Amino acid sequence: MIIFIHFYSTIIVSAGTTLQAAFIRDHQLWFKKEDEEIQITTDRYARSPKWSYDGRFIAYIDGGVNGKDSNLFIYDTKEKENYQPYGSTSTFDFKWSPVKNQLAFTDQGLLQVTKTRMAALTDLKMSD
Question: 8, 31, 35, 59: which has the highest count of C-beta atoms within 10 A?
């Protein structure tokens, strides 16, 4: 009986999981959710996609073929928009926080920390 209950609860939990992936094809960033593929970038040279801890945001590098002009971008899968957290940010090294939508990166040798637009808006509302 215990094995049946455990097996049944596992099925319920896994049934609600949505499969999604970010990948690079022909130097463009793509997003796949279940069976649908969506091209995120066009006429770019995207690389190094990384998911936020909650799976809503994808950070990636967008720059030239030779590695120059490598700028940090964030794609919001819910709002379906790309944006740069701080205008032009030249970086190759970035990591998401494992506990919140906060991104750390190096820019000209300095460690920078940023939040997504949604996290920044939430902080503003809480401080009012």
Answer: 59
Q: Domains in the chain, start-ordered, CATH in brackets?
A: 19-127 (2.120.10.30)
* Mean pLDDT across the chain: 77
How far the first Cα of the chain sits from its last, in Å, is: 53
**pTM for this predicted structure:** 0.73
Would you give the distance in Å from CA 39 to the centre of its chain?
Answer: 14
